[in-house]
Request: fold
Amino acid sequence: MKHLFKFILLFLILNGLSMKAQYQNANWYFGEGAGINFNSITPTVLNDGQTSEQFVATASVSDIQGNLIFYTDGRSVFDMNHNLMQNGDNSILCSQGKQSVVIVPIPNVNKYYIFTENADNSDQSTHYYFSIVDMDVNSGLGSVVLLNQSLLNVPFMDSNTGEYFYCAYFHNMTASVANDGETYWLIIKPYHKFYAFHITENIMNPFPPYVESTYGNFNYDCNVYDPNSTSGCSTDGVSSLKVSSNGNKIATTFNQYGCLSSAGALLYDFDNSTGIISNEDYVGSSLNAVQYFSVDFSANSQYLYCVGNDPMSSRELVIDRYYIPSGSNTPETIYITNGQNDQVSYSLQRALDGKLYIGNSNQSFLSCILNPNDVDDVVFQNNFVDLGNNISGNFLPQLIPYFEQDCPYNVFVYNNFVGGDDVTIEASNKVFATNTINYGANVIFNGGNSVVLGEFFKVENDSFLEIHTTGCSILPPEHRKLTSTDSSSKLVANSFDNDFIQLYPNPNSGLLNYDVKTDALISISIIDYKSGIVVKEIPNIENKGVLDLTSLNSGLFYIKIIVNRDIYTRKIVIK
Reply:
């Protein structure tokens, strides 16, 4: 029996399987004027952002259709028109840090918390504040109606141990949906502790008591910093704190120049019903002297990705990943740059398309891990998103936690389905899919206007996919089907719509005819099937013609065709 997605949502949450992303995180603004929109399967660069510093954290929020609501650099708040919000002109207290600002919706009202961190040398403490934005005022443009209310003060010196922690300047915050699907957790990490604040629809000032979790199984001697000493190691202040998409794990990094033996990542269990964090595990690079600057989880919560470099030598970009179910504390290295890299800090952030994006200081592009869920052949692409004249900076924006909708406007599907899965996924507008349907799974995609399958989408091993364009409704008997025929078949992106795109002959000897039923200009990319590398790009061409691929070696390729911001992918063979 096929169950509608809204009826199996509780099952998915309880079993740690987050299948879809919604559009509250569709717009990113960060760095020096940089921005990206994820309303399509291909990210679109934005040039209207008002953020102006590379080394300041940012956060933004959109509605469920991906329309921008507001964003902040932790100090000022900008409305949907990119003007300073009422009462939002450089009025919020916030210091420099990778995750020093977080936006969290207040449940069941059109209001938002902005949580910030501000280190204060005058009293040797880090102060945490909350402000409130009300979107029902100022003609829907919003106003900061409550400003810099005290949430928590953390002294630089640990009162229990007497240790002075320089890294108190660089505490991190993040947020997650609670297991009830109706409330949130705000999570703060200073030195040996976590503080979890439960956020409900009740706006309280002061906040109710936090849940405290103390950890420290690993040797943190290098974290200790003597303010009166000029020797020894010090923290670099670029650690990160992330929650897995299933809400069950938390990871953080810690790094100290001169103390590489204790640099790495830490992984914890997170009970999102109680806020308790426990069971610390150390994850260290399989290479020598590698610092992790940022971490994030794959969308299926199976892998922890860590990015960093070797600050003592060439500062090469290193990407490691740790397979969480294995229990091993040594990750596999999946990428190392060749040659010198002058940058010393990286930011890693999962987007709603399931990809992992990497930002860096003084760079006008974002790199990307294209298929982080995959077991094998993970593809990394440098300079994946060209930001033009804008600069990424060290900090990609904090994403907000979000609740699932019964009938969302758009849905991204990036987790794989296997035998025994019998699932329907619906959206009132579009379903975007980049996953694999394998080993006899039965899946229905139902988009109100269209279903778009990305370049990594596959149906394999006697699996079954139905495509509908009726939106969230009772499915009609007339529909198209895409079914794999045997264990070696791989049917890829939009094979169900053969009338829309025609490619022939296939296989070919280097000359390929194409005919796309559209009046718009199209863009075509040829991608090597095995490596995922783009080997040929042809932007803005007519919808019908002949492609000259004679310069390419024989083999299997993807052809990616972009039509009105939608992507269609086919396999082609060059003999």
About this structure: Residues 1-21, 218-237, 474-498 have pLDDT under 50 and may be disordered.
